[in-house]
Design a protein that fits this description.
The chain contains nine helices and 16 strands. With about 400 residues, it is α/β, with parallel strands linked by helices. The chain has four domains: about 45 residues; about 110 residues, Sandwich (Immunoglobulin-like), CATH 2.60.40.150; about 180 residues, Rossmann fold (3-Layer(aba) Sandwich), CATH 3.40.50; about 40 residues, no CATH class. Strand 15, helix 9 and strand 16 form a beta-alpha-beta unit. Helix 7 runs parallel beside helix 8. The radius of gyration is 32 Å and the shape is elongated. The N and C termini lie far apart (about 70 Å). This is DUF58 domain-containing protein. Keywords: Membrane, Transmembrane, Transmembrane helix.
């Protein structure tokens, strides 16, 4: 139906242009004189160009998109080159291009990708545009919409060509050092700045090699089988492994929570410990604890796509979640808004005292009201290590004091 309407519109324009030419000729014939013929002679080249444009094979214009790379960190610049080519020098006064990209990009970036070019007689030309401060997400380029026309808007011809590309924008992160809080471990034990301490007398599994692992930990047989360096996983003397719980309740500071979560993941894996994630949104998504670069990519891919789309309260989701039962690792809860129900639900978990950590993520200039301060004090009294983390101070999340 849409194609029929467009074809009808073009036919009417063609008829209108033909009527204009005939009318101007008739006017010159019956009126006579220099002025009338001058008007007809001036309009005739424009009319001939418009007629030629009607029959110009616009779909033969070829477009190729090149992107500088396909994986980014949030905040980076994306450079896109559009190369146009055709087989003749027919003058094209203007060329309106729209790079068709997924709707989520338009919602986050706030604008569509439309550009006005003036190729004129060129057979090949290139247009380069940059996307500054690209937000996290997965975006799909679907194709190009092209419209050409004459200087007076009498004729417009367009077409759509598919040209699929996809870019993935991982969340930004802050470099931080993961140092477990002293009161998270048994009496008399303190955190160490070295890699996770393990009992090297009892290997319980194997994993991918992580920079900093000892040479003696390499499992040669498994390395030969998998054609990559595998390391023995020993029983831990101290539990440095972390299970992150991300609250995806809709909130203006949700992007800060994602950045903070991505930063902790990198810090924990760099420490040599394992990290897992429970992403609690419209549906809970669980990623078991693992280590290595593959786990980093897996969790970052999820964080690139995640949205604050929870439809029920965080405290109720905690009540339904079974992941925390018999959990011996550290559990980090990352929230933007603290409520009494959340504090009560977290404190009711049957986890050893000191192994529950609650991070409340706030904007740079936000201030806590009396109710929030009372809830933080209540959480600490119930054995939950509670910290308010402000934007710009994420690197200090594990500082003592």
């Amino acid at each position: 139906m849409k194609k029929f309407a467009e074809a009808s519109k073009q036919t009417l324009k063609f008829i209108f242009l033909l009527v204009l030419v005939i009318s101007s000729f008739c006017y010159a014939m019956f009126q006579g004189g220099f002025v009338s013929w001058f008007l007809f002679g001036s309009f005739l080249p424009i009319a001939l160009y418009c007629f030629a444009l009607f029959f110009y094979p616009v779909k033969k214009i070829q477009i190729q998109r090149e992107i500088n790379k396909y994986e980014f960190q949030a905040g980076e610049q994306v450079v896109v080159n559009l190369t146009f080519s055709r087989t003749n020098h027919f003058p094209i006064f203007f060329c309106l291009i729209e790079d068709d990209i997924s709707i989520n990009f338009k919602e986050k970036y706030g604008s569509s990708l439309k550009f006005l070019l003036f190729p004129l007689f060129k057979k090949q030309w290139t247009y380069t545009y940059q996307l500054e401060q690209i937000p996290r997400g997965e975006y799909e380029f679907k194709g190009h919409r092209v419209v050409i026309g004459d200087p007076f808007g009498l004729v417009r011809k367009g077409f759509y060509v598919s040209d699929e590309d996809k870019i993935l924008v991982y969340p930004a992160f802050i470099n931080m050092t993961y140092e477990p809080f002293e009161n998270q471990f048994e009496l008399g034990m303190t955190a160490t700045k070295d890699k996770v301490q393990r009992d090297s007398t009892m290997a319980i599994s194997v994993r991918e090699y992580v920079p900093g692992d000892k040479f003696s930990w390499i499992h040669w047989k498994q390395s030969a089988k998998k054609n990559e360096i595998m390391t023995k996983e020993f029983e831990q003397r101290q539990s440095h492994d972390v299970m992150l719980v991300l609250d995806r309740t809709p909130h203006p500071n949700f992007e800060l929570s994602v950045v903070f979560t991505a930063s902790i993941i990198r810090a924990v894996l760099k420490k040599g410990a394992q990290v897992g994630l429970v992403s609690m949104g419209d549906r809970a998504e669980y990623f078991p604890m693992k280590s290595g670069n593959f786990q980093l990519r897996t969790l970052n891919y999820h964080l690139a796509q995640v949205e604050d789309d929870a439809s029920i309260e965080f405290s109720k989701m905690l009540e339904l979640e079974q992941t925390f039962k018999n959990q011996h690792s550290l559990i980090f809860f990352i929230v933007n808004q603290l409520t009494l129900q959340v504090v009560e639900k977290i404190s009711s978990l049957s986890v050893r005292r000191g192994h529950l950590v609650l991070f409340v993520v706030k904007g740079k200039n936000e201030k806590l009201n009396n109710e929030q301060l009372e809830l933080i004090d209540l959480a600490r009294k119930r054995g939950i290590v509670t910290r308010v983390i402000y934007e710009g101070a994420f690197a200090k999340a594990f500082d003592r004091g």
